[in-house]
Amino acid sequence: MLATRDLSTSYGGLIALSNATIDVQQGEIVCVAGANGAGKSTLLKSIVGMERPSSGTVEFLGERIDGLAPHLVTQRGIAYVPENRRLFPRLSVADNLRLGSYLFRAEKDREAPLEMVMSLFPRLGERLPQRAETLSGGEQQMLAIGRALMTRPKLLMLDEPSQGIMPKLVDEIFVAVSKIRAAGTTVLIVEQRLTECLEIADRAYVLQTGRVTMSGTAAEIAGNAEVRKAYLGL
User: Fold this and answer.
1) Residue 64 falls within a domain, yes or no?
2) Tell me, what CATH number does 151's domain have?
3) Can you give the pLDDT at residue 232?
4) Going by fewer Cβ within 10 Å, which terminus of the chain is more open, N or C?
5) pLDDT tens, 181-227?
6) Cα separations (Å) of 173 from 23, 29, 91, 100, 196?
7) Order of strands, sheet of 29-33, starting from the edge strand that comes earlier in the sequence
8) CA triple 12-16-22, angle to 5 deg
9) Domain of 175?
């Protein structure tokens, strides 16, 4: 479904991503792990066009998308939930969700995905009139994921969905990610909580200083001695 080949991206002459090659097959959950500054967020931004790669290619469903503007990438079927969520804080939960369906504004069933979002995150259903800025960090993350699902994505990309969230809500979000995949949406997730991510992932990649240094099934990565020491504290 998604393939990057030798993807490199620089900021002000500094290389943030170097020759990164990853594949995501339809129906998978793929985890990308690595320390802060490893290039994980840059990888996702380069895929969706928020950063312009200096070299390499990105293919989605057999067609190149590197060089496309972000809104055109969204139209192709990739939804991206950034690390900082980028909600509209003064708008209600309901309005934030409706904005996710903007691509389908002319269609009668514009809000069809709302039922799925409410089933995944019942808390949002209880808070539809509230402004987004009044939600807890975990609820805001749920809203950001829900808004992304309103675009009816084929591929959902999540950047550190557990960041700044209390453990109980982290568990809810990872359960929701599994349900999203079960409903037919492929998931690429960047995450520092590697233990939780590997529990739901099919495969994983490890990034270090902008390079892919390891890849394999979730079980292979979880069982690797270097990974266990560096990322799992074992």
Assistant:
1) no
2) 3.40.50.300
3) 61
4) C
5) 999 999 999 988 888 899 999 999 999 999 999 999 999 998 888 88
6) 24, 14, 23, 19, 10
7) 78-81, 155-159, 186-190, 29-33, 203-208, 211-217
8) 145
9) 25-50+69-230
> Which amino acid is located at 152 in the chain?
R
User: Is 61 a domain residue?
Assistant: no
Residue 143: both structure tokens together: 């809203």
Determine, yes or no, domain membership for 44: yes
Give the global pTM.
0.93
Torsion sign (Cα): 191, 168, 179, 141: negative
Count the domains in the chain.
Answer: 1
Residue 11's pLDDT band (boundaries 50, 70, 90)? confident
Q: Is residue 111 part of a domain?
A: yes
